[in-house]
Amino acid sequence: MPNIVVCGHSHCGAVQGLMREQNVQTLPLVRHWLSRAGHRTRTDEPWQPQGLGEDPVAVTQQHVLIQLDHLRSYPFIARRLSSGRLRLHAWYYTVETGEVLAAASGRRTFKPL
């Protein structure tokens, strides 16, 4: 497979739970996803990436970028990236409008696809 897309979306329950100090123990599917995604699953304080405040769109986009960083940490992914046989893509889908935003390679900002 030459491409991997990590796509976040508006109203993401996982990110909203992290932002609101919600204990995701009562949300088993969200808890499972977050534990696999490298996030803590019991929050004592909100997860707010530096400088993003409470903007759920910005926080969700940051979550997508963090997941790409996690993927890059796997040796088999890193090898395919360095050989040019694999590309990673960060997307954000707005449910209400159907708009898809993408972060350009090496950038941390999202623009319309």
From TrEMBL:
What is the UniProt remark on how the cofactor binds and its stoichiometry?
Answer: Binds 1 zinc ion per subunit.
**Species this chain originates from:** Streptomyces flaveus
Q: What is its EC number?
A: 4.2.1.1
Alphabetized, the UniProt keywords read: Lyase, Metal-binding, Zinc
Q: Which cofactor does it need?
A: Zn(2+)
Main role? Catalyzes the reversible hydration of carbon dioxide to form bicarbonate.
The record lists the catalysed reaction(s) as: hydrogencarbonate + H(+) = CO2 + H2O
What's the name of the protein?
A: carbonic anhydrase
UniProt superkingdom: Bacteria
Question: Hey, which family's this protein in?
Answer: Belongs to the beta-class carbonic anhydrase family.
Q: Which SUPFAM superfamilies did the record assign? A: beta-carbonic anhydrase, cab
A molecular function (GO) held by this record is: zinc ion binding
Top-level class of the enzyme under EC nomenclature: lyase
- Which residues of this UniProt protein bind Zn(2+)? H9, C12
